[in-house]
Amino acid sequence: MTPRTGVWLVGARGSVATTTVVGAAALRAGLLPPTGCVTALPSFEGLPLPRFDELVFGGHDVAETDLPKRAEQLVQAGVVPGGLPESLRADLLAADAQIRPGAEAADCRVPGDAVEALAADLADFRERNGLDRVVVVNVATTEARPQAHPARDSWRELRRQLWREAPPGEEPLPSSSLYACAALLAGCPYVDFTPSAGIRVPALEELAVRQRLPYAGSDGKTGETLVKSALAPMFAHRALRVSSWTGTNLLGGGDGAALANPQRAASKSDSKARVLQEALGHAVDGGVHIHHVPQLGEWKTAWDHITFDGFLGTRMTMQFTWQGCDSALAAPLVLDLARLMALAHAEGVHGPVAELAFFFKDPLGTEEHALERQFRALVDWARGLGAAR
User: Fold this and answer.
1) Alpha helix (H) residue ranges in 163-242
2) Mean pLDDT per segment of 10 residues, for the chain of length 389 residues?
3) Are 302 and 249 contacting, i.e. CB atoms less than 8 angstroms apart?
4) Where in this chain does the record put each Myo-inositol-1-phosphate synthase GAPDH-like domain (predicted)?
5) Each residue of 36-57: pLDDT tens digit?
6) β-strands 299-309, 315-325 pairing
7) Contact between residue 46 and residue 385 where contact means Cβ atoms under 8 Å apart
8) Dihedral of CA 224/227/229/235: which sign?
9) Which among 39, 67, 230, 316 is most buried, taking Cβ atoms within 10 Å?
10) Would the pTM of this model clear 0.70, i.e. be above it?
11) Are 267 and 288 a contacting pair, CB within 8 Å?
12) Helices 15-28, 67-76: inter-axial angle, 10-degree rounding
């Protein structure tokens, strides 16, 4: 029997998840090429990665709009080619049938009960479909940054906290961390594609090591920050000192609406800024400014203004504008991460997978932010795993 890998998407009816499922189905049917899929490059040829037609999709979501309808909405937004959802309707319905109701932390009297239910959904998905493994990827809406809590510093203490009723006024563990906990307890590799807390809670990182599971994140690098991670090393290697780098982001869609909340936007802005400081070797003025423009729909525009000093202190500037569709940029990376994490899990890799830094703004397990070095580390790591088979 051909081995199959499950891809469980947290936020399974959102724009990124829907585009991922549509894209995988189109690749399986041979309707479109794998444009944007890093693992389809020649550097990864011959590796024992699961094929696109070996991926089985499911997920959690609190939304009720089914995948065929969401896909049609993305056609209207110019993200998905017209006619494609109808051609792939059977695949979309099959994936939608695997989606289970999600959980909101604020609604959980005893969070541990929700974690157990979420983990049971994962185990059931794996067993019903005869899957070798299930990779969980969080592509849900960005959350506000949680406050530190001593009980979250060790798995023993967090477990006690989860399986009791929270006292009035206590901030609950974020929903993203409940999903991460469920994934680990169900024996699933986990990927944070958002800047939400997710697995970045000391107790959950400890649990991942206990369970001998790989995890990766966070905050997928899809647009403006991708350009930053390529450009910033250029300034550093040419000894041109950057004094300011200001980014203005105009976002539509659900992501834009969520990031209109300053607390939610803080997580995104921090991960974007970290790339520059690490790549340049020093802090710069400017920062990132995020604005919600509903009329942009699924699209976004980023305008960056850079000032830098050349020889004799001559002040110079550089500007660039990035316009793109985040869902179409993110979806192929979700497929890449699912394939690579499946290989890592099969080879017994556990703990933070630093070699996947190429995909993230704020990578776990490494301080390397230069794009070319990240890519070389990724290829060497993946080929090393492939050679071990």
Assistant:
1) 175-185, 202-210, 224-237
2) 85 97 97 96 96 96 95 95 96 97 84 94 97 97 79 89 80 91 98 94 96 96 90 93 94 71 62 77 88 90 95 95 93 98 96 97 92 95 84
3) yes
4) 223-327
5) 999 999 999 999 999 999 999 9
6) antiparallel
7) no
8) negative
9) 67
10) yes
11) no
12) 100
- The closest alpha carbon to 356, from 347, 348, 366, 370, belongs to 366
Q: Kindly list the structural domains of the chain, giving each domain's residue range(s) and its CATH number in brackets, ordered by start.
A: 5-219+328-387 (3.40.50.720), 224-324 (3.30.360.10)
C-beta of residue 68 within 8 angstroms of C-beta of residue 93: yes
Whether the CB-CB separation of 224 and 304 falls below 8 Å is answered with: yes
pLDDT in tens, 181-237: 999 999 999 999 999 999 999 999 999 999 999 999 999 999 888 999 899 999 999
Q: How many Cβ atoms sit within 10 Å of the Cβ of residue 18? A: 32
> Are 13 and 99 spatial neighbours (Cβ–Cβ below 8 Å)?
yes
For every residue of 249-306, DSSP letters joined together read: EEE-HHHHHHHTSHHHHHHHHHHHHHHHHHHHSS--EEEEEEEE-GGGTTEEEEEEEE
Q: Give CA separation, 136 vs 12, 179, 289, in Å.
A: 11, 9, 30
Q: Phi and psi for 100 in degrees, rounded to 5?
A: -115, 155
What does the angle CA 166 – CA 121 – CA 353 come to, to the nearest 5 degrees? Answer: 85
Cβ atoms of 379 and 291 within 8 Å: the answer is no
Element (H, E) at 146: none
Q: 107: buried, middle or exposed (CB in 10 Å: 19+, 13-18, 0-12)?
A: exposed
Q: How far apart are CA 120 and CA 124, in angstroms?
A: 6
Residue 41, phi then psi, degrees to nearest 5? -70, 155
Could you say which DSSP state residue 147 is in? Answer: P
